[in-house]
Design goal:
By secondary structure, the chain is of the alpha/beta class. It folds into four domains: 3-170, 2-Layer Sandwich (Beta-Lactamase); 185-194 and 203-238; 248-395, Alpha-Beta Plaits (2-Layer Sandwich); 404-628, TIM Barrel (Alpha-Beta Barrel). It is built from 23 helices and 18 strands. The strands form three sheets. Strands 10-11-13-14-15-16-17-18 form an eight-stranded mixed beta barrel, surrounded by four helices. Strands 6-7-5-8-9 form a five-stranded mixed beta sheet, sandwiched between helices.
């Protein structure tokens, strides 16, 4: 029951009690007053009438007595007037029943007024002739008492209505701080931590608001401390402290995770760079100068390489840098190597004394068995022995290399004609209950079914990723007509960034409300950093249709996690580089456990990608994750998983 309703009931009860008490006192006092007045009036009338009829009574003139009684009785103030002689015989009797049409009978029965009587002896000289009795008419008293009752009732009704109005207005103003506190609590549930700047005047409410503000500040500090601890742990174990790039451990884990994922298996290049004579430079100018030099090189390499989606840049130690670029062909690799060397040699440090060499290897189909590092190291040694160039590229010849124009035509035709094949990989909760199925794409190229790693770099190269996403969603909408299942679909960075795609998906969801209720859209964490505003707009717009949004490849972007407080996300998918051999990596265990705590405090699920062994799945349970996906739990298949 609301506070206003309780207050209204309390006011009503108080008014009823006051009304009853007031009526009891006022009406019954008035009744006593009226009775006493009528009693006196009846007695005076009886005395006067007894004196007036004494002569007629002596003469026993009943007609005259009746006439004199009628004069008094006809005025209507009396209920009964009677004259009896000494023998008790009623000589004259005038009587009328008590009838008050304007007063309800229940009221008359409730306050019953005694009959006011007056008696007087009729005497002529020294002789008693009879007795006159006058009974007052109570109808007028009932009418006046009913009028008093109604006036009191209307007065209290008006007072009650006025009290209701004042209570409502007062509550509106008094409870405004409480409504702000309610909104403040709801904001905390949304991972927002606002403080009320304007405090109420009422001491009790002001104390409550101050306590809420202190609690909000404390929760915000605890949340930020947890995030900072997790980020510092990630930096300590996965980030090179001098350059801010990935370290050797992080690079190897991310490269392995990429090659095992759906995106693996396509074009790629690995580059090894080395700065010569760094030790002599440190001895001459100091270690701090050497660290600044390494940071300058990192700041030159990273912007050029991060233009390629999924590129990994790392410092392996000392003066060695390692870079992996997926989705790049041989000619683009040559251009990139030349560009990197050119940019590095424009830095204001003696490049002749400190030459930077680059060895690269390109593979048309990168796999774990490609021995990229050993071949890139051989290319680096070759570059260091060259007289003119500072870089060397080794390539793996392939008879199946397709020209760019042919790739564009092939992909455009497959997408336009919706010739994609959808595969599904199950995502389970920790109890092996099916949460949803992730939609994966296959293309039939030259009679062979290729996974995304074989064609996705070319799709992105020719700016067809938004068209591919439209095609996948359209095919899924047709499939969902027969299957009432939960699905997740990955969106490309280009789709998120394009206003035209965001407008299209709004229209698409309005036409397919059933799919919308069963749909999870997955976006890479890097998209949040590169297209933050567009991503927030997408989340807000699709949430209106019941679509949930998830972040995958979570944890590798190396960014602050504070943005999680402001985004209504469904779940986070930890990148498989943190899950691989999780049972033996204590640094990753602590990091993943911290991510689980952060996700749960934000009301999000935390799922694992790339679960391949029972040991990894058991460790996921111990760390508090909510589920996962991977070859251990279910491989991609054309048929939907059961559950």
């Amino acid at each position: 029951m609301s506070l206003l309703r309780q207050l209204v009931l309390s006011i009503t009860l108080l008014v009823v009690i006051l009304l009853a008490g007031n009526m009891t006192v006022s009406v019954y006092n008035a009744r006593t007053h009226f009775f006493e007045q009528m009693q006196v009036h009846a007695q005076d009338t009886a005395t006067a009438l007894g004196f007036s009829i004494s002569q007629a009574a002596q003469e026993k003139d009943a007609a005259l007595i009746g006439s004199m009684v009628d004069v008094i009785f006809d005025r209507g103030y009396y209920q009964r007037i009677s004259y009896a002689n000494l023998d008790g015989e009623q000589v004259v009797v005038r009587e009328t029943p008590v009838q008050v049409d304007s007063v309800p009978q229940w009221f008359i029965d409730l306050i019953k007024i005694p009959n006011p009587k007056g008696e007087s002896e009729v005497i002529n000289g020294w002789f008693r002739l009879g007795k006159i009795q006058v009974v007052g008419h109570t109808g007028l008293a009932y009418r006046d008492l009913w009028r008093v009752f109604r006036e009191q009732l209307w007065l209290f009704a008006f007072t009650a209505v006025l009290a209701y109005g004042m209570a409502g207005v007062s509550l509106h103003f008094l409870l405004r701080p409480l409504k702000k506190v309610e909104r403040q609590a709801e904001a905390i549930c949304r991972r927002e931590f606002p403080e009320q700047q304007r405090e109420p005047r009422a001491r009790e409410l002001r104390s409550m608001v101050q306590a809420m503000n202190r609690m909000v500040a404390k929760i915000r500090d605890m949340f930020n401390e947890q995030i900072e601890l997790t980020e510092s742990l990630h930096r300590a174990s996965h980030v090179d402290p001098v350059t801010g790039l990935s370290n050797r451990v992080d690079f190897d884990a991310r490269l392995e995770a990429f090659l095992k994922s759906e995106q693996g298996g396509g074009d790629g290049a690995l580059l090894l760079g080395q700065l010569s004579n760094l030790q002599e430079y440190n001895e001459q100018l100091g270690r701090e100068a050497g660290d600044r030099l390494l940071a300058t090189i990192a700041n030159t390499l990273k912007p050029l390489l991060m233009t390629w989606p999924g590129a990994i840049v790392s410092r392996r130690g000392g003066a060695d840098f390692c870079m992996f670029v997926p989705g790049i062909d041989r000619l683009q690799t040559e251009t990139l190597c030349a560009q990197l060397i050119e940019e590095l040699h424009t830095i204001s440090w003696p490049s002749g004394a400190l030459p930077f060499h680059l060895g690269a290897v390109h593979e048309p189909s990168v796999t774990l068995d490609s021995q990229l590092l050993s071949r890139a190291d051989a290319a680096l040694r070759a570059a260091q022995h060259q007289a003119e160039d500072y870089w060397c590229l080794l390539t793996q010849q392939s008879d199946g290399v397709r020209p760019a124009g042919e790739w564009r035509k092939l992909l455009r035709g497959i997408i336009d004609e919706s010739l994609l094949q959808l595969y599904f990989q199950p995502v389970f909760d920790r109890d092996r209950n099916l949460l949803h199925s992730e939609v994966l794409v296959r293309m039939d190229i030259d009679g062979q079914l290729q996974n995304a790693g074989s064609f996705l770099p070319q799709v992105e190269r020719f700016a067809l990723s938004d068209a591919l996403d439209r095609c996948v969603l359209s095919l899924l909408a047709e499939r969902s007509l027969q299957e009432d299942k939960q699905f997740s679909v990955n969106l490309s960075p280009r789709s998120v960034a394009l206003p035209s795609f965001r407008n299209w998906i709004q229209q698409f969801l309005s036409e397919h409300p059933k799919l919308a209720r069963n749909l999870v859209l997955e976006v890479s964490e890097s998209v949040v950093l590169s297209h933050g505003d567009a991503f927030k707009h997408l989340v807000q717009s699709v949430s209106e249709w019941g679509v949930r949004v998830a972040l995958d490849h979570f944890g590798v972007a190396g960014s602050a996690f504070n943005y999680l407080q402001t985004l209504p996300l469904y779940c986070l998918k930890v990148d498989r580089s943190f899950i691989s051999q999780l049972e033996t990596r204590q640094d990753n265990q602590f990091f993943v456990k911290s991510l689980a705590q952060i996700a749960h405090s934000c009301d999000m699920l935390l799922l694992a990608e790339g679960v391949e062994t029972d040991a990894e799945w058991a460790q996921i349970h111990r760390l508090g994750l909510d589920g996962g996906q991977g070859y251990l739990l279910g491989r991609p298949a054309a048929e939907l998983p059961k559950g």
